[in-house]
Amino acid sequence: MSQHSERPAGVDGRQDQSAQHTRRSLHAPKRGWLHEAGKLVKGQTPHGTSSRPHQQANPKAQQPNSETAELDQEAETIFRRTARYGGSDPHDPQDHAYEPASPADDSDSGTRVPSSPTHTKPKHEQSRRSQSDDDDHDSEQGRPRGNPDESQDPNQVEWEGPDDPENPQNWSLRRKWALTVLVSMFTVNVTFASSAPSSATQQLTQEFQIGTVTATLITSLFLAGYCLGPILWSTMSELVGRKLIMSIAMLMYTLFILGQALAKNPETLFVTRFISGVCAAAPLTICGGVIADMWDPVGRGFAMSLFSCAVFIGPVLGPIVGGFVTQSYLGWRWVFWVMMIFAGVCWLAILLFLPETFAPVLLMRKAKRLRKLDPEANKQVYAPHEKSDWSIGGIAHRTLLRPFEILTQEPILVLITIYLSIVYGILYGLFEAVPIVFEMKRGFNLGESGLIFIAVGLGTTIGGIINIFLSLRYKQLTPFWHNMPPPEERLWGSMIAGPILVLGAFWFGWTGQYTSVPWYVPALALIPIGMSFTLVFISLLAYIVDCYTVYAASALAANTIVRSAVGAAFPLFSRQLWQGLGANWAGSLLGFVALAMTPCPYIFYVYGSKIRGWSKFAPAMDLKVREELEKEGKLPEDSLNTTSAFDRNGLRQAKKDAAAKEDPEKQHQQS
């Protein structure tokens, strides 16, 4: 509540009016039709226009709103619980306890969870307050309701205020960006290893006397390791921290590359390749968590753009480097030596430069440090992470059962997983399609064929840049929606990318089939394909995280398992597909499949809010915020049904509110 709204009309009010008149006179030179027209464009109040009728028409908007405070508190509770468990809440939705916290409940705080945004108590129970103290700080509304394990327990270790420098969210921008670049390099390393040996397929067939499809397993088995790795490493990282698990996994990954470089038979090569894939899944799983640990939802969009580009830059660099190394005097084994050197450098960088970022583990270390400093006085001190359910049954439920439970019960996750799996499969299918189009049909050598992937890298970079501009739209909506904008606003990237992917698939197939078409024409088709890769992945993965919040880790695990399995399968039949059907019809087949999936993000943008309202695992906090915005008159009544899909986000009103906050005259007129 602002101080201006609490002052009675009297002497203080006359003083305010006098000060307001003085402030206005200071701005007199700015009066003019151009200045006032500019204010109208921004949605600000022109000079001489009274905002009092508007205040009378919307008295609720000018009064302190307890429901708005509750929304802010519930949103904060969701953020804190997501951070506490890393998006892998140990409790199922049906286990949630929604009653307000009471002192007697502190004993079993480790088994209680926060109020659910989609299942609420009656109004009279929600508004129940403690009558022992009139201060807002002691009211039930002043702390997370139904959440005693995050209440003000004097023995629970928390950050030292909102600006605690130990909190990764409070690190400097320079440090955050340095670590974002660092973890992106780790991602480039492991994705580079996924595709680099694909250029040595023909040499492997000659070296070990195996078939072409069998030699293709060198890529497929590595991707198959991605199915098991996320479950293993994400769980361990949430238990003991990001850095330790990254260090162990990257060391194992580096050592098993040694077995690939020295392999004397295909069995050794394939087994070590699979184990390397399992270990390589650690950066793909944990590095995204590191970014989420440091960045808030608004800034995270920019950081995730860089991270997502790194996910695709690695597979693009693989064939380029691998092709030149394989055809040189060094031979195919030096592809693995290059991979091992790169991996060793990244492992050393983890040891030297990567700090621990997982907040629950940092607070647990702080609690242990306090108990060690003063064992007697601090013997009751604890961190919430120490009371989490880390039993074998609890871990198995979260990591094995729940991902597939969510996948079978959530239509949003099912369709997004199918879409991402197809896009992921097309990416790794290109490692077989590009050699057919450029080596077999146009006579390129391995190195020259690998250079074609530069077009894919250029496209992924352009897609990342486009996503940065799309993030600005999300940033404008965040304060308007109490930091909980509709997740559907994340879908713009995939809505743009869907038609581009279809265009790129047909373009590449039909121009690549005929040798009379210059080589650069099908090569240019890979640019829109690369753009669609980045935009689809950033958009849909962010949508999953925003939809499922406290269960995001389980949803992403299910998506990763299925996506990796499809990606591992594509190289096994892509060569036969492009040779049997021809480049024109093989590209058309992929284009038709992409066309069938293109409406998905549009459907979710229109109906996603209603679907999430029925969901068991999606909190759908934005639906409660929407109801409040409708009561305040900032959105039309029943906005989900009475407005168009592209107007129901309140972007126009959000811009007006932001402009009003920037205009001091508007603020004084409304106060």
Automatic annotation (TrEMBL):
> Per UniProt, which keywords does this protein have?
Membrane, Transmembrane, Transmembrane helix
Transmembrane segments annotated in the record for this chain:
177-196, 208-232, 244-262, 274-295, 302-322, 334-363, 412-431, 451-470, 491-510, 522-543, 550-573, 585-607
Superkingdom of the organism of origin: Eukaryota
Where does the record place Polar residues bias? 46-68, 110-119
Return the Basic residues bias intervals: 21-32
Q: What is its main location?
A: membrane
Name any GO cellular component annotation: plasma membrane
Q: Name one GO molecular function term.
A: transmembrane transporter activity
The annotated region (Disordered) lies at 1-170, 631-671
* Protein name according to UniProt: Transporter
Q: Which organism is it from?
A: Pseudozyma hubeiensis (strain SY62) (Yeast)
